[in-house]
């Protein structure tokens, strides 16, 4: 059974870079035809897609965040990562990693990780 | 950007009753629409994709339908574990989510 687990600092200072990693277990990132995504959730804006990455490192980013987002894959560790630069309080959210439902980049997500709360504050 | 509008924001239903949730897209998304259930402190769980296909392990009381840009999630007979927040999401091009409908006990 595929499982995903987010990890990273729970507190990031304004203007710094938020860095999160998603570790995949129960399946291989590099042997999967699925894509891998990051989604965040805030009380104010609800669920927001951040971006999607393939094991080959093809990336697709939300246009509203594209200038600040970098996603990557480490197949040797079966992990994929998110970096969001120049964060502000508006980036405070629960961040989820997830797998796409099929072999298209623009897709539904299943399953999801449990989520990790990241707070931006000095 | 395609906007998904969910209604109502809150739906009060008694156990055993039928619940009908709506998701309207601002433009055509074909049938590229998914529904999720989220309970407090948990991640969203996929219920429906392709507007009407139940995900693996989802009970038959959950069904999805589409008519143009209007999508409906129906829960035929609400069980206690179904009280939660439900979100729609399109994947026709970039991905966006609706604002959610909270299904609460009446």
What overall form of chain B do the CA principal axes indicate?
globular
Q: Count the helices of chain A. How many? A: 0
Largest interface (C-beta under 8 Å):
A-B, 21 and 22 residues
Order of SSEs of chain A: EEEEEEEEEEE
What separation lies between the terminal Cα atoms of chain B?
A: 35 Å
Average pLDDT level of chain A: 95
Shape of chain A: globular
- Give the end-to-end Cα distance of chain A, rounded to a whole number of Å: 39 Å
- Point out poorly predicted stretches of chain B: none
Major sheet summary line of chain A: 7 strands, mixed
Query: Per DSSP, what share of the residues of chain A sits in E-state strands of 2 or more residues?
Result: over 45%
Percent helix among the residues of chain A?
under 10%
Sequence stretches where pLDDT stays below 50 over 5 or more residues of chain A: none
Class by SSE composition of chain A: mainly beta
Quaternary form: heterodimer
The radius of gyration of chain B is 13 Å
SSE topology string of chain B:
EEEEEEEEEEE
Largest sheet properties of chain B: 7 strands, mixed
The radius of gyration computed from the alpha-carbon positions of chain A, rounded to a whole number of angstroms, is 13 Å
Topology, element by element:
The complex is a heterodimer of chains A (122) and B (106).
Chain A (H helix, E strand, L loop, with lengths): L2 E5 L3 E2 L5 E8 L10 E7 L3 E8 L5 E3 L7 E6 L4 E6 L8 E8 L8 E4 L3 E5 L2
Parallel strand pairs in A: 2-11
Antiparallel strand pairs in A: 1-3, 3-8, 4-5, 4-9, 5-6, 7-8, 9-10, 9-11
Chain B lengths: L3 E4 L2 E4 L5 E7 L7 E6 L6 E5 L3 E2 L7 E6 L2 E6 L9 E6 L5 E2 L3 E5 L1
Parallel strand pairs in B: 2-11
Antiparallel strand pairs in B: 1-3, 3-8, 4-5, 4-9, 5-6, 7-8, 9-10, 9-11
Can you tell me about this structure?
The complex is a heterodimer of chains A (122) and B (106). Chain A contains no helices and eleven strands. Chain A has strands at residues 3-7, 11-12, 18-25, 36-42, 46-53, 59-61, 69-74, 79-84, 93-100, 109-112, 116-120. In chain A, the strands form two sheets. In chain A, strands 2, 4, 5, 6, 9, 10 and 11 form a seven-stranded mixed beta sheet that branches. A four-stranded antiparallel beta sheet of chain A has the order 1-3-8-7, with no helix packed on it. In chain A, a hairpin with a 3-residue loop joins strand 4 (36-42) and strand 5 (46-53). The radius of gyration of chain A is 13 Å and the shape is globular. The mean pLDDT of chain A is 95. Helices cover 0% and strands 50% of the residues of chain B. In chain B, strands 2, 4, 5, 6, 9, 10 and 11 form a seven-stranded mixed beta sheet that branches. Chain B starts with a strand and ends with a strand. The mean pLDDT of chain B is 97. The A-B interface holds A 46-49, 52, 62-63, 96, 98, 101, 104, 106-115 and B 1, 32, 34, 42-46, 49, 55, 87, 89, 91-100.
């Amino acid at each position: 059974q595929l499982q995903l687990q987010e990890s990273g600092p729970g507190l990031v200072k304004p203007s710094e870079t938020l860095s999160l990693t998603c570790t995949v277990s129960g399946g291989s990132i590099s042997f999967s035809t699925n894509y891998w995504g990051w989604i965040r959730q805030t009380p104010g804006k609800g669920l927001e897609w951040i971006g999607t990455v393939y094991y080959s490192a093809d990336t697709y980013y939300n246009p509203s965040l594209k200038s600040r987002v970098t996603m990557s894959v480490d197949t040797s560790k079966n992990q994929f990562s998110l970096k969001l630069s120049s964060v502000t309080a508006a980036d405070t959210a629960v961040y989820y990693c997830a797998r796409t439902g099929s072999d298209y980049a623009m897709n539904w997500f299943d399953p999801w990780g449990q989520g990790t709360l990241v707070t931006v504050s000095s | 950007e395609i906007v998904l509008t969910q209604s109502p924001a809150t739906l009060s239903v008694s156990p055993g009753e039928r619940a009908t949730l709506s998701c309207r897209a601002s433009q055509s998304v074909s049938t590229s629409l998914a529904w999720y259930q989220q309970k407090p402190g948990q991640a969203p769980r996929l219920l429906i994709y392709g507007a009407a296909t139940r995900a693996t392990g989802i009970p038959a009381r959950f069904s999805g339908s589409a008519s143009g840009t209007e999508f409906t999630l129906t829960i035929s007979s609400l069980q206690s574990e179904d009280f939660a927040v439900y979100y729609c999401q399109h994947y026709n091009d970039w991905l966006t989510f609706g604002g959610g409908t909270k299904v609460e006990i009446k």
